[in-house]
Amino acid sequence: MNIGQAAKNSGLSAKMIRYYESIGLLQAATRTDSGYRVYSANDLHTLAFIKRSRDLGFSLEEVGKLLTLWQDRGRASADVKALANKHIIELNQKIEELAGLRDTLQDLVTHCQGNDRPDCPILRDLESGGCCH
Known about the structure:
Elements: H1 3-10, H2 14-22, E1 30-31, E2 37-38, H3 41-55, H4 60-71, H5 77-111, H6 121-128
Antiparallel strand pairs: 1-2
């Protein structure tokens, strides 16, 4: 199938498919005599793996490691689990950071009168860089 069909079937854009190919996550596609890329069912399977990994928040570097492990039938599942556990720790850290941001913004919104007066604690906080209320 051509890149447009591969994009439609994988849920990725043609641009992303070309990018994944350029960085080595996806094996270079075979080409027709006129230079068009041709993708196999195996390529689509790999694209689905990449997409799902990215949907779960894995970095491109981590996706590369996961692909290597996936393609190595002699791998230890402990290696895959260790990579996934590391990612969970990173996700939890991001969740804590986002919760802190949410709480700070909620506090600012709570202290904003939201009336016709120009005084605004939200803008004052942004102006001060978050220090010196």
